[in-house]
Amino acid sequence: MGYIDEVIAQVIEKNPAQPEFHQAVKEVLESLRVVVEANEEVYKREALLERMVQPERQFVFRVPWVDDQGQVQVNTGMRVQFNGAIGPYKGGLRFHPSVNLGIIKFLGFEQTFKNSLTGLPMGGGKGGADFDPKGKSDREIMAFCQSFMTELSKYIGADTDVPAGDIGVGAREIGYLFGQYKRIASKYEGVLTGKGLSYGGSLVRTQATGYGLLYLTDELLKLNNISLAGKTVAVSGSGNVAIYATEKAIELGAKVVTASDSKGWIYDPEGIDLEVLKEIKEVKRERILEYTKYRPNAQYHEGKGVWSVKVDIALPCATQNELHLEDAKQLVSNGCIAVCEGANMPTTLEATKYLQENKVIFAPGKAANAGGVATSGLEMAQNSGRISWTAEEVDEKLKNIMINITHNISDAAERYGAKGNYVLGANIAGFEKVADAMLAQGVC
Ligand code: NDP
Ligand code: 2IT
User: How far, in Å, is the centroid of ligand 2 from the Cα of 436?
Assistant: First the structure.
């Protein structure tokens, strides 16, 4: 058994019942074969891969809170500080009933390479809780966030570990979390990103993941001599990433025809009405079903189905493993030319392989959705400097970062004889900097 296979086997053995973590490790390590084989002696002696697949530390804690009926509820909170070789741990918090340690570890592992790709000094971390924000009152959300932060505050800090949002954690939650941190730590510091503009947030952070996804998609298409303008696009999800991906796709001249949530999906052949989508999801926090009330020509379907629509480009922006082999086959038979991941690991390993074999341009999440954390890095820089940049300045920096990532992943793929394999390119480009820093810092 080669070194990589040994490490994968160990990860599976030592982390039972964490399939998403196994999947993320396999995806990364298998595409690093060329690099690892060229440096096998050093990497093995230094146990580089064994260290890379093990979080530096992880915290799991009780989160008790009182609901509106006076009933005490208990959730499980966690924070995984995965890799701090190139900067303070950085990564989002996810509040969703499906959260468990395996999910947070997969996200923290991915985050390490994603953050490296941004070119900014940020290590990898992730956290969250199995709390379901759906249907909760504002007071309940605040009570939960305050209890969660009471524990989390012991482990984080502006130069230590800087959380942000992810599924179920947006501006409202970040506000409550920040307020509680400030009370406990007696410090006004940039300990979270995605903050409101009145208390240290950065312009464009809300839009950044979706916008960044489109900047990368546009540049990747250009590298392949294809224009984004005039293309039809399927977007899944209707949260932060999906909404601003839709906004930028429209701005760049494409037509987005789908949106979804965990209950169902809509097809609007005339193109998604962005204002309606924002009203339903950002203001009223309703189900996507409501869309047809505003747009009677749109169709609503229960369950999954976004990938059955005939489109040129697919942008999965909801959650992990939402695009399966059958979906990939459907997209290919409908003539889809590109799949770029707004979500983290939305495409299964089998589906990714099928898309690549069928010459679909495929951009993995760690590159394609890096605009969110990159702009978090810009928020940290503004907080440290006690300054704020204009929207144009932040957007310009974000765009440059995404264009650089596009070229870096493309060049890395080419360098290793795998032109057009952006999975391999992203993993290698992300890995190289982290590996170099870890080796330089000795055994730690
Ligand atoms: P939001 O909570 O704003 O939106 C999530 C969307 O995905 C909602 O439409 C939600 O539907 C849907 N969804 C979530 N879980 C499931 C599920 N299990 N099955 C079906 N649909 C689901 O989250 P974000 O938009 O912030 O995050 C979306 C993805 O992007 C995640 O993978 C996240 O990790 C990734 N990401 C986010 C970044 C950010 O800056 N926010 C940065 C980089 C990546 P419903 O409301 O019905 O649950
Ligand atoms: O997955 C991600 O990159 C995020 N949820 C954003 C993390 C961040 O720190 O901005």
Answer: 23
CB atoms within 10 A of CB 256: 25
Q: Does residue 234 contact residue 258 with C-beta atoms inside 8 Å?
A: yes
Q: What percent of the chain has pLDDT over 90?
A: 100
Ligand closest to 365 (CA) is 1
Structure-derived torsion over alpha carbons of residues 401, 88, 194, 320, reported in degrees to the nearest 10: 80
Q: pTM for this structure?
A: 0.98
Give the strand pairing for 255-256 and 232-236: parallel
126 is catalytic: yes
Residue 290 in tokens: 């409501």
**pLDDT tens-digit map of 348-404:** 999 999 999 999 999 999 999 999 999 999 999 999 999 999 999 999 999 999 999
Residue 157 · residue 125 · CB < 8 Å? no
Candidates 99, 114, 192, 369: which one to mutate for ligand 2, based on the most atoms within 8 Å of Cβ? 369
**Phi-psi region at 160: left, alpha or beta (left = phi > 0; alpha = psi -120 to 50):** alpha
The reply to whether ligand 1 has any atom less than 6 angstroms from the CB of 344 is yes
The 10s digit of each residue's pLDDT in 17-31 is: 999 999 999 999 999
